[in-house]
Amino acid sequence: MSSKKDNVTQSITQVIAASSLGTLIEWYDFYIFGSLAVIIGNQLFPSDAGASALINTLAIFAAGFIVRPFGALVFGRLGDLIGRKYTFLLTLVLMGGSTFLIGLIPSYSSIGYAAPILVLILRLVQGLALGGEYGGAATYVAEHAPAGKRGFFTSWIQTTATLGLFLSLGIIVLTKNILGADTFADWGWRIPFLLSILLVGVSIYIRMKMHESPVFTKLKSEGKISSNPLKESFQKKANFKMVLLALFGATMGQGVIWYTGQFYAQSFLENTCKLDFNESRYILLWAILFATPFFVVFGSWSDKVGRKWIMLTGMLLGIVFYRPIYQYFIDATNVKEFEKTELLSESTPVITREVVKGGLDSVITSTSSKVLKNGMTFKESTITVVPEDVLAPVPAVQTVIKDVTLSDSTFTVFILLVFFQVLLVTMVYGPIAAFLVELFPTQIRYTSMSLPYHIGNGVFGGLVPFIATLVASFQGSTPLSGLWYPIGVAALSFVIGAVYISNRVDRNVMD
């Protein structure tokens, strides 16, 4: 009896390992772009584009999320018709190939606006592929999981999105440290994209050895496969009602919590708080490292107490605490305020002069590093535009602060605050795969669960960095204005979920 149990456990372990590795690599591929948005923006758009380069790059990044629901429809239909295994094997190939090609595209200086157009096309392919990946992997694992442990086993798949981000951040930081900041910004940023082809090759090899889901195999042998998964998913009133409930009562709120806590946090620290490139990523790396085990904790706990209130509690905590957390980020990095009384030392300014605008004007830049008594360091640049025409207006002077490095104590507090945000991610995301799988019948499960997941997570959630950054750039807005988008979406989802979602667990996936 014990031997039989060990064999079953080993089989499930292999299923989880193979599914998780491929999904992790797909998330890695998808998120490299967002992690390098500032550098990529400088490569894809004119050098004088300024803030619009970042916003345009985030728009290209968001495009990959917008098409994810279409990928869910296309590959979800294939998954319900031909099987789980071969469908998410195909998505892996598409994702890996697109990521590799992004690393090869020339910069704006070489091919002009063809560069962002080509990257946009490849981002769309990535979005389509990811739209088909997650539903297949989650369904595949859930259909292998024993009764009473579906939340626990599917939660391992849930870790892959965050671990994919962790892997992408780690490789980016390692590459930048090896090559140096200037070389990395020039061409070294391409290396994380190119490396993905090796990871994809390993995953394809492993996935080729996987067997089809036993639940789908049984359904196929009995001749019960859906002839039209799209029609059955969205034209049958009862099933379509569950699709809408999953979207507005769960995945929509889960999506904005996910992308606020992990992506917008990094973007905010780097672009609003002006933290050093490595500093912002180290904070997120430590936070993710400490928080990731809680995906499994909350997934397993949902097998005992239900999925609903764990997910909704994560949304509620985000609604309440986001603004105070981000206000602290701003206050703790307000170097001009600290500098009034606490400047400890300053390096000798380095002065450079550059002719711009066809030789009509000159830019004089004076850059120095400063150290404050509280342990914070930063670079301060005074940029003076000197008109060559003596009748021109008074030279324009601009002071820019960047590359802020925190004191040890403040750095620790930042890790704890980002850790708290990622902990909320584990609460909303850990149980959601089991929740979605249990909502829908086997013959249309891949299609039915993929669409609300990718609209909620991909569209509502994926647009957080772009919309929040855009809103914060409006005249009259504050750095915290962008948070109203994720807070508002999470609040709406919380209310709908609290009223309409059932807290039952462990519905038979053979239904």
Architecture overview:
The chain has 511 residues and is an alpha+beta fold. Helix content is 72%, strand content 9%. Strands 1, 2, 3, 4 and 5 form a 5-stranded antiparallel beta sheet that branches. The chain is globular, with a radius of gyration of 24 Å. The two termini are 28 Å apart. One of its GO terms (molecular function) is transmembrane transporter activity. It is a multi-pass membrane protein. Residues 15-505 form the Major facilitator superfamily (MFS) profile domain. Keywords: Cell membrane, Membrane, Transmembrane, Transmembrane helix, Transport.
Summarize the structure.
The chain is α+β, with helices and mostly antiparallel strands and 511 residues long. Helix content is 72%, strand content 9%. The protein has helices at 2-35, 37-44, 51-66, 68-82, 84-102, 108-111, 114-142, 150-179, 181-188, 190-208, 214-221, 229-234, 237-272, 277-291, 293-305, 308-332, 335-342, 408-429, 432-439, 445-461, 464-473, 484-500; strands at 343-346, 350-356, 361-372, 377-387, 396-405.
The value of Rg in angstroms is 24 Å
Structural class, from helix and strand content?
Answer: alpha+beta
Q: In angstroms, what separates the terminal alpha carbons?
A: 28 Å
The CATH class of the largest domain is identified as Mainly Alpha
CATH homologous superfamily caption of the largest domain: MFS general substrate transporter like domains
Chain oligomer state: single chain
Shape verdict: globular
N-to-C order of helices and strands: HHHHHHHHHHHHHHHHHEEEEEHHHHH
Instruction: Report the sheet-strand fraction.
Output: 5-15%
Q: How many individual domains?
A: 2
Low-confidence parts: 1-10
CATH architecture designation of the largest domain: Up-down Bundle
- In which range does the helix fraction lie? over 70%
Mean pLDDT, all residues:
82
DSSP helical segment count: 22
Strand runs, count: 5
Largest sheet: 5 strands, antiparallel
Q: Could you say what the CATH topology of the largest domain is called?
A: Growth Hormone, Chain: A
